[in-house]
Predict the structure of HTH cro/C1-type domain-containing protein.
Amino acid sequence: MEINSIGKTIKQLRLDKKISSQSLYTGLLSRQARSNFEKGDSDTTVSKFFILLDRLNISLDEFYVIHTQKESVEFHLFTDIASVYYKKDIEGLILLINKLSKEYEKTNNIKYYHYKIMVENMLRILKNESPSKDFEQLSNYLLNCDSWGYYEIMLFSNSINYFSQDLIDIVFKRSKSIITNFRILRRYRNEYAMLLLNIINKNILESNFPVAEKYFLEYEDMAEVLQNDMYYQTMRIYFREVLEVTTNKKQSTEDLEKVITYLGYFNMGNKQKQCIALLEQLNFHVEKKTDRNLEIAFHITKK
C-alpha cells in the first residue's frame, strides 16, 4: 500500500459521496494542504485520517478493501484454513504449512510463523498427535501478551486443544475485559464466540461438565449481540441440548435432532458432521432417516 496515495482514495470517496472539500476537511486541513493530500503529494496524521473516515461514513476495513482493491491476505488465508480443516484434508493442510513457511522466510513477519504453528497443530489434532515442537513458542507469545486483539483470540481459539484447562482459565480471565471491548466489531465478536464454543467443546469431550457449563454461561451472555447470527444461535441451542442430555438434566433428544437436521437445511454440512462426530464420541447413536417425501431427519439415542 502506497501511503501517499491514500489521499487520492479519500478524494475519490469524497466525490463519489458528493461531499464537498470544505465539509470533509474543515478544522483538519487548510485549502493548500487539502490539495496536496488529495494529489498524493503529502500525508496526514493518524488521528485526522480516522476523522476523515468517520465523516465519509467508511470503516477502516472498508477503506482497506477500496484502497487496495482486494480483501486482506488474512481473509483468504483463514477461509482456506477453515475449508481444508473441516474437510479433514490432510494434504491441504500440509500445503498450507509449506505456503506459510515460505511466506515467513520471504517477509520475516512473525505472524506467518504463528499461523504455521497454528496450522501444524490443527493437522496434529486431526492425526491425534501431540503438539508440534514449535508450539511452546506460540504458547509463550500468547501468555506474555498483555493486550489481546483479533489476532491473539484467533491463535488461542484454534490451538485450544493443547492448553490445559487451568491455563485456559488463567488466560481467559486475564484477557476477558480486553476481548469484551472488541465485541462491538463483528469479526471480533464472532471469533470471541468461537473461542467460547471451542472451550465448551473441549470440556464436554473431557467430561468436565461443570467447566463446560461455566463457559456456556459466558456464551449465553452474548445472546443479545449474536441474536441476528443464525450460525451462533444454532450452536447455542446445540451445546445447551448436549449439556442437558449428557448431564441427565433432560432425557429427550428431540431438540438435538432438530438442530442436526436444520444444519443440513442451512447448508452447513461440515458443521453438521462435526456436531454428529461429537455426539458419537459421547456414546450417542445418530441415525439418518429419509421419509417417503425424501425429507431427511435424524434420530439420536444413547448407546
Remarks:
- The mean pLDDT is 87.
